[in-house]
UniProtKB/TrEMBL annotation:
Domain of life: Bacteria
UniProt-recorded name of the protein: Uncharacterized protein
């Protein structure tokens, strides 16, 4: 474990400030705040496994994003990560070909240190309830990872990364707003 002065090790497939192990999500302030936006995710009651949530803290204590990690029962490991990153979140800033934050977190959780890059992007329309979403499907160099992104009307970027299972239109029907109060700390 690095000392507080050392930066955490970077993941080969996900360089950058926010692309390190999940433990960095621990809050450093005495009175941490939660997000000021609802989180679009699957309700924990709709998932047949374990759910973990993490907040991305800014130095000022504000929330720069929320991600949810859905693990399967039976110790079969993480199956999906859903991130909600508001406008201005540093975790949204990726260079061309770099994987999104959520893909980096999925690879870290799987202890997979393979170099993964984005090799293509395809836009497609998807209905989520009464809303039409323009979903970006990211094609990755690791074909066992499925990844999609879309922008909400409140400028929160939602990214879904799944391991070894395709992301189908059925998943969008399961997404619902979870209230920000669920993610308050302190």
């Amino acid at each position: 474990m690095p000392s507080p002065q050392e930066p955490p090790a970077r993941h080969a497939g996900a360089p950058g400030t926010y692309h390190c192990g999940m433990s960095f999500l621990r809050r450093r302030s005495a009175t941490p705040a939660g997000p000021d936006f609802d989180v679009l995710a699957m309700d924990p009651g709709d998932w047949p496994g374990n759910l973990g949530a993490g907040l991305l803290p800014a130095p000022d204590g504000s929330c720069q994003g929320v991600y949810l990690r859905y693990d399967l029962f039976g110790g079969r490991g993480p199956a999906m990560i859903i991130g909600n990153l508001p406008e201005g979140s540093p975790a949204r800033e990726v260079t061309e070909g770099e994987v999104p934050f959520e893909v980096g977190q999925l690879l870290l959780a799987l202890e997979n240190d393979e170099e993964v890059t984005v090799v293509g992007v395809e836009d497609m329309p998807v209905m989520q309830g009464d809303n039409l979403l323009i979903v970006r499907r990211l094609k990755l160099s690791e074909s066992r990872i499925s990844c999609v992104q879309f922008d909400r009307s409140d400028n929160v970027l939602v990214t879904i990364a799944a391991w070894d299972r395709p992301i189908t239109d059925d998943l969008y029907a399961l997404l619902k707003p979870l209230p920000a109060e669920l993610f308050q700390q302190g």
